[in-house]
Design goal:
345 residues; 14 helices
């Protein structure tokens, strides 16, 4: 489907439930050209990939959700060899590119938000608005949100809900969960959402926001290691991008955006602070030059057309020819959290 004059394609990936966010701005900063190789690290319903293909680029699409890989096969056939779909994590995007025969690429785009398709399917257990199994696993494998809620010590739940959900009353929520699970383990999203609503109540000032919103966000991020994934993907993108290659990140909450912002601030720095009292800091050569000075947000037209875009923030940079360097993911904003069967720090 062609992209309209506004830059929005309601069915860009073959699903009328999914609208690619900030598509016009993504294309503007990626600036794809015929024959260039682009990585769409969060393929989802294929919105960005389809638009890149229409510009003549070749695309390596990556997604950890088996449903996304299955749903994208029609687009693979339409692309006639210009789209390779890879099941896997975008944290490993460098490896995926090399394994498909590409030692360097011209662009990388990542939409760090949870897919609207996943939110819409009750059986995936992402949303408290649709009762379903308390799951939340993007890869449909490994520990689920129910495992975390039912087995992690209360002190670890407090930290996860407080840090990843930015829930001010994390202690209250975690202790309520601990008391309730002694009687009966949590198996359904409705059970957990109902408990949280009963202990937190609804704020008259924020009646439209469900009190379980922040806790569900925290569990989803923890179960899927989303912040670790984002930080490792930034590091991998730096290594796989050719000089002049473009990196575009779209994030949907402050935790992700903080990591992206810190990464670009560090990688685009050209000189240290210094003062008359302190010598100037020795700064490594910048590995990126900024394409955005501040986060790009959706305009009024897009937010009216696609409410999901209201919280989206886009940041972008262009790769220089300077050598890559290691990234301390915790310094970049990934918190240290309790380990649980492969989850956590």
């Amino acid at each position: 489907m062609a992209v309209g004059e506004t830059g929005y394609a309601p069915d860009a990936g073959g699903s009328d439930r999914h609208v690619p966010v900030l598509l016009r701005q993504v294309l503007e900063h990626l600036s794809p050209k015929p024959g260039e190789v682009m990585i769409d690290g969060t393929f989802g319903a294929g919105g960005y990939s389809r638009a890149l293909l229409q510009k003549g680029a070749k695309v390596i699409g990556i997604d950890r959700d088996p449903d996304a890989i299955s749903g994208g096969q029609e687009l693979v056939r339409e692309a006639e060899g210009n789209l390779i779909l890879v099941p896997g994590q975008f944290a490993d995007l460098e490896d995926h590119a090399r394994q498909t025969g590409h030692d360097g690429v011209d662009g990388v785009v990542l939409d760090l938000g949870v897919s609207s398709m996943q939110l819409d399917e009750a059986e995936r257990g992402f949303s408290f608005l649709r009762d379903g199994p308390l799951d939340m696993r993007m890869e449909q494998a490994g520990p689920s949100a129910a495992d975390v809620v039912n087995h992690l010590p209360v002190k670890d739940l407090i930290r996860i809900i407080g840090l990843l959900g930015e829930e001010k009353r994390a202690t209250t929520v975690a202790h309520a969960i601990e008391r309730a699970r002694r009687e009966k383990p949590f198996l359904r999203t409705g059970e957990l959402a109902g408990l949280i609503e009963s202990v937190l109540g609804r704020s008259p000032k924020k009646a439209q926001i469900h009190p379980a919103t922040r806790t569900f966000q925290a569990l989803r991020i923890y179960v899927n290691g989303e912040l670790h994934q984002a930080a490792k993907a930034l590091e991998g993108a730096e290594r796989i991008l050719k000089p002049g290659g473009r990196l575009v990140l779209v994030s949907f909450h402050s935790l992700e955006d903080r990591i992206v912002k810190r990464f670009f601030a560090d990688r685009t720095k050209t000189r240290g602070g210094g003062s008359r009292h302190m010598p100037e800091e020795d700064v490594p050569p910048p590995t990126f030059e900024p394409l955005t000075r501040k986060a790009v947000e959706a305009d009024e037209e897009e937010t009216r057309f696609n409410p999901r875009a209201r919280s989206a923030r886009l940041r972008a940079g262009r790769r220089t020819s300077e050598p890559t360097r290691a990234l301390d993911i915790h310094a970049a904003g990934v918190p240290r959290l309790a380990e649980y069967e492969g989850l956590g720090s």
